[in-house]
Design a protein that fits this description.
Elements lengths: L1 E5 L7 H13 L4 E5 L2 H10 L6 E3 L5 E3 L3 H25 L4 E5 L6 E13 L2 E16 L1 H9 L3 E5 L2 E3 L4 E2 L3 H12 L3 E6 L17 E2 L15 H13 L4 E6 L5 H6 L4 E3 L1
Helix pairs in contact: 2-3, 5-6
Bound molecules: adenosine-5'-diphosphate.
Length: 267
Amino acid sequence: MIVVKVGGSAGIDYGAVCADLAALWEEGRRFVLVHGGSGETNRVAEALGHPPRFVTSPSGYTSRFTDRETLEIFEMVYCGKVNKGLVERFQRLGVNAVGLSGLDGRIFEGRHKDSVRAVENGKVKVLRGDHTGTVERVNVGLVTLLLDAGYLPVLNPPAVSYGGVAINVDGDRAAAALAAALGAEALLLLSNVPGLLRAFPDEASLIRQIPADDVEGYLEFAQDRMKKKVLGAAEAVRGGVGRVVLGDARAERPVSAALAGAGTVVS
Ligand code: ADP
């Protein structure tokens, strides 16, 4: 069992990811796909007159401030356009995919964090009304029910809080929690870079191997959202996942390439 997370940044080739997954599925390999949609969410939010607001925590992590309106736009894009677009691609390729969010059947569950500490103009402020959180529990039963019945699950944030509220969660870390809960042999985090770069954006500075017991030691090379991927990789290997690959979703056969070790391999 392999969990594949494909991001939502510019340059990602969803067609290549789906075609590669469909070919491997046909050979009998089993996958769960988790996807992002941040680039498209930003575009739709701008078009609807509610531009995205990104905040940086005092420890340097960047996240989307998710008020109720942002959450609804996020759901339109993630659960609607992107998820159904991927499911449609799989259907065209002859793979019976089922698209669900973390809300559906409580697939991704976590605590709702209503306020966030953010650095703005050099000062730390507390912003309230945030609909975010972190995945703490995964409904593995529902995911395996689908897999055992022959369906390819295509999953996305939001998650659901213990109180039943939709919360925006990081997709990489949700995929890491899922991979750990499923006892996956590998987790592939595919994005629009070749992997973790020692000197971003110099693609020649690719870090090819990270030892499983020192993933956090590599956090210093990751800026902004890449930090979440490194953190997700650390959580997955700590949770028993055999191998995490930070790979390139712009490649021709991006899943096969990552499985063959292209990218940054954490093991
Ligand atoms: P996705 O939406 O595909 O999951 P993100 O945009 O969240 O991807 O994260 C990937 C981005 O992280 C890259 O496009 C790049 O701009 C940024 N990044 C920051 N530091 C690094 C680094 N050291 N190596 C690679 N990418 C990095």
